[in-house]
Amino acid sequence: xxxxRVIFITGAGSGIGFDTACRFxxxxxxxxxxxxxxxxxxxxEQFSQRxxxxxxxxPLDLLDVPSFNLAEDAVRKYGHLDVLVNCAGICSGTPLxxxxxxxWDRTYAVNVKGPFFLTIRLLPFLKAGNQPTxxxxxSMAGFxxxxxxxxxxxxxxxxxxxxxxxxxxxxxxxxxxxxxVSPGTARTAMVENxxxxxxxxxxxxxxxxxxxxxxxxISRVIVFLASKDAGFITGQTIHVNGGMYIP
Length: 247
Known about the structure:
Elements: E1 6-10, H1 15-27, E2 30-35, H2 38-50, E3 55-59, H3 68-76, E4 83-86, H4 101-127, E5 133-137, H5 141-144, H6 151-171, E6 177-183, H7 189-194, H8 197-204, H9 215-225, E7 237-240
Parallel strand pairs: 1-2, 1-4, 2-3, 4-5, 5-6, 6-7
């Protein structure tokens, strides 16, 4: 059960992060939802109102590390943090030989540096949490190189996987579990921005289970990892890709 726990989610304005926030809200958890997409956060707030629940929305850009003070302030009022979900991420789909230094740095800033330093800032609150856990959202691309061979995205997700293992070892003595969920290609706005429908249908032919992942497929696993049922799982990657990648 996750009710009455304090949950902090980045990337909560759309896609997997949005669905995860909705699922936690339904359980009765206190959710602090972060994203740079203010309209997405407003939709999440409307969902919580329909559910008769309260969500705290926090406009936050992972490119702006100094603004992480706002994240600390949001959590401080509760005195502890039980679950941190690092879900925010970006991918442009730019061809390998056209990637700029600026795009590379921006991808790493959002996908690796941001999650790491946000985690460090919130670590004192996690140490005070109830069965605290950190859940990072990586990608199958970090294990396979990705669909369109965008090394900025795929290598940043591989770095996130290593970071998850590092954090798991460091945090275990404090009773904090750290895991990651590695989705295959999911039908989200980010994917639809860099794959047209024809490409998506060709891609589906490579998936043994015959479809793309849905946000719901991933959010269920995230909620499981946050639960007591996952109490002895740490340092692990849970792959959710319909059998396309089997380690």
